[in-house]
Amino acid sequence: MCHHCCARWSPGAWTHGPSGAPAHGNWPRCCSRRGPLSRSPGRRGYGSSRPTTSGRPGSAPTRLRPSPAPRPTRHHRCRPARRPSPSPFRRWPAGRAVRAGRPSWSWRPWRSRSACCWATCSGRTRPPGAAPRGAAPGPPVPAPVRPAPQTPSASARFPRADSGRTGDFGKAATDRSVRPAGWKAWKSTVQGGTGDCGYAESALLCGGTKGLTALDAADGKKRWRVPESAAGAVVAGFTKGTVYAFVGQALVGYRITDGEERWHAKLPAGHTGSAAVQDGDTLFYVTAGGSPGTGRLAARRLTGDRGELWHKPYDGTRPVLVADDGRLVVVAGDTRIVDAATGAVKERLSANDFPCRDPVLRGRVLVCRAASGTGLAAMNDVDRPGEHRIIAAGITVRGPVALTDDGTVVVNDDESLRAFSVAGDVPKWPTDRFADGGGAPSVAGDLVLAATGAGVGTYRRTDGEPENSTSYTGVPYPPKDPPQLLAVGDVVFLGFRDGTVVSGYVP
To answer: In angstroms, rounded to a whole number, what is the distance separating the alpha carbons of residues 74 and 462?
Structure first.
């Protein structure tokens, strides 16, 4: 087997066939006649006696010197250097080429300890990173690039999909391979539930006036509910194996599998958690004090020692937080662009200047439902907040909007869905009118989902053409508000204000 590497080891010696025997001094140490130059029985190689032609018209076949008898069958290994033997190959006249169409020689990845056998397997003349004789060693060959590990909260899904509240659940929303094992359609009721649930590790974690409840995402059965008292709970964030919630005047971490308390941090005296958003492993949250204007805006790392990174006074009421890629926006009447690293307010816009409700943040793009109810307030770059404007003017926007990865915003005008380009304020498409009065838009892969009081309708993301719609059994009738929607594994979870939770297929 090592005859192949011997042919390649000496520069200019052979390429696809011998064009002249190399000098013995340039041969690898392992290439001796009694070493691995011996062929396995029946294997055709350079040492065989099979006649070949030079490729010249009219040339006679040239026979190579026959190889010695094969050694006993065993795995060939490169041996230590011995005294070089004369080459078993016939010296070809210079300039002769290998016969046209001759097949390239195959080789097998034999076990080897030497560079010679490595060269046989790889087709190279030296190991990776090795330098030619007399040259300085080259840089080592880098290891293959492996995918980066997921962050602890990568599998979690929040109401409105993510930390930016974009409503875009991505391709995993229609990927059946990530569906909870053993899933089937179900209906359940969360005591004191408000419809706000998060998804993590095949469980739905729902807050409410009677504590934190965990439902099995596969069948809707209750796993656990904490605390034992009737204290209210608000889901705040997730890390691997843990859900964090504001319970009373504390931020508490519970194990997702059984609800056991794993971590506890008290809030300032008299404060309760009122809003939170998680970006990576950082939790941004607002706590409300006992009197107006005494709140706090804070950031806390949910890994390591889980200590607070910073906190600032906050005087707003009922805020909505969105965050993405190190940017934080807090909306409560006015709009504040906050430095996520330090908590410093970089820009503060009044409601008259930037009338924002239900904000959505994706990268640098910020889109809000205009407080007047007509049109959208938009910024192409939150780092330049002075460049804001109103788009989709004249369109009545109901409820939250969805923002896709290509800068398309989808809105509900109570009769149909409409899509606009944020950058150019260009209408893309409207859908046909709904039969039941509209729904809150979300995005799942190549589909737009419209969650209504009775079920879900699906539309093509590219042109708004309807795909399908369905109604689910067990939904409250008549519902007071459209449900909160979560989509994962080609199934949806709908949470209603009365605590009803329903799961069914994506239409």
So the answer is: 63
DSSP line for 61-128: PBPPPPPPPPPPS----PPPP-PPPPPSSPPPPTT--PPTTPPPPP------SSHHHHHHHHS-SS-T
Q: What is the DSSP letter of 24?
A: G
Q: How would DSSP label each residue in 422-490?
A: TTTTEEEEEPPPPSSS--EEEEETTEEEEE-SSEEEEEETTT--EEEEEE-TT--SS-SSPPEEEEETT
Neighbours of 396 (CB within 10 A): 15
Q: What is the CA radius of gyration of the chain?
A: 35
Residue 27 tokens, joined: 């041969």
Q: Are 322 and 338 in contact (CB under 8 A)?
A: no
Nearest to 441 by CA among 163, 156, 162, 169: 169
List the end-to-end C-alpha distance of the chain, in Å, as a whole number: 60
CB atoms within 10 A of CB 95: 9
Q: How many CB atoms lie within 10 A of CB 290?
A: 10
Q: Which residue has the tokens 């924002």?
A: 356
For 384-407, the pLDDT digits (tens) are: 988 899 999 888 898 889 999 999
Cβ–Cβ under 8 Å, residues 271 and 289? yes
Provide the H-helix boundaries in 88-241: 115-122
Q: Are 263 and 300 in contact (CB under 8 A)?
A: no
What 3-state DSSP class applies to 356?
strand
Burial 139-156 (b: 16+ CB within 10 A, else e): eeeeeeeeeeeeebbebb
The pLDDT tens digits for 405-458 are 999 999 998 888 999 999 888 899 988 766 455 678 999 999 999 988 778 989
Residue written as tokens 């209603």?
496
- Give the Cα separation of 439 and 459 in Å (integer): 12
Answer whether 327's CB lies under 8 Å from 364's CB: yes
Spatial CA neighbour of 105 closest among 41, 22, 17: 17
Picking from 489, 488, 486, the residue whose alpha carbon sits closest to that of residue 502 is 486
Task: Name the residue with higher pLDDT: 68 or 432.
Answer: 432
Largest interatomic CA distance in the chain: 106
Q: Could you tell me if residue 95 is left (phi over 0), alpha (psi between -120 and 50 degrees) or otherwise beta?
A: left
Is beta strand 334-339 parallel, antiparallel or unpaired with respect to 203-208?
A: unpaired
Compute the distance between CA of residue 196 and CA of residue 494 in angstroms, rounded to an integer: 9
Q: Is 26 helix (H, G, I), strand (E, B) or coil?
A: helix
402 touches 347 (CB < 8 A): no
CB-based contacts of 135, cutoff 8 Å, min separation 6 = none
